[in-house]
Amino acid sequence: MGDVVTMDDLTNDEIISILDSAERLLPVAKGDCLLPVLEGKVLANMFFENSTRTRMSFETAMKRLGGSVLNFSSVGTSVAKGETLYDTMKMIEGYADVAAIRHPRQGAAQYSADAVEIPILNAGDGAGNHPTQTLLDLFTIRQAHGSLEGLNVVLVGDLRYGRTVHSLSHALIRFGASLTLISPSTLRMPEEIVSDLRAHGAGINETDSLSDQIADADVIYMTRIQKERFPDEDEYAKVAGIYKLSVSDLAGAKEGMAVMHPLPRVDEIDPSVDSTDHARYFQQAFNGVPTRMALLCRSLGVDVPKKVK
Predict the structure, then answer these.
(1) What is the pLDDT of residue 235?
(2) Entry pTM
(3) Domains detected in the chain
């Protein structure tokens, strides 16, 4: 089965294989050549929560490979009438060959994978996991540094609710990265995640100061403070806008340091950073297409050619 619910569903060798396939698929992702290897296949984009990049990059990936897409949102569907997730997924199983699901409830992707026989790709489940984002993040980091091995990665912002950093941190330590976790005390990485990372031998530094960490960073991964995850708006107001990266902050950064962000950004990265060589976040967003292309091929049992023309 080609499910990817968490990064634990992939071995390190499988991760590298997906990234290698994504590299070969870059000209297809850019529209420079055609590779209709998924012609006749149907992807169901099951989005119970708002999305721009993830939904559109999945759709682009499938269409670039010759497949077709069913776009589902909970607005205007039978979910509004009270249909259960189980019944919705059983219905979709009859219409599609593979499904990407985003859901506000943690665990919904695994529940869906257990319910149906078609492959399920987790496109984000609440504050849980976002493995397809992690794959494009790893691809972007490897583009910047040529390797994933032994990097110093600084994760900044909402580490409590940010599912992107939860998945990414687990993946990075599998390749020997050192992690610096920067957040206000109320948004620290959950203790169970930090304990698990340390149990796997990760070197982890936790602090609330960004400026002190810039000089030694290979990657600075900024995240948005997620207003929609806060149960109390007053608590959100206390931490909104707490970390901002501007071009002047990067004066002492390493030459090849990569600034990343899963987007959307609010004010975490000043637009002045966009024109620097450090800025990787728009390339990162595009990289969702080739990595999700590679993942769709894997889930549907289709080999990516060694040479794509």
Answers:
(1) 66
(2) 0.92
(3) 7-130+287-299 (3.40.50.1370), 131-285 (3.40.50.1370)
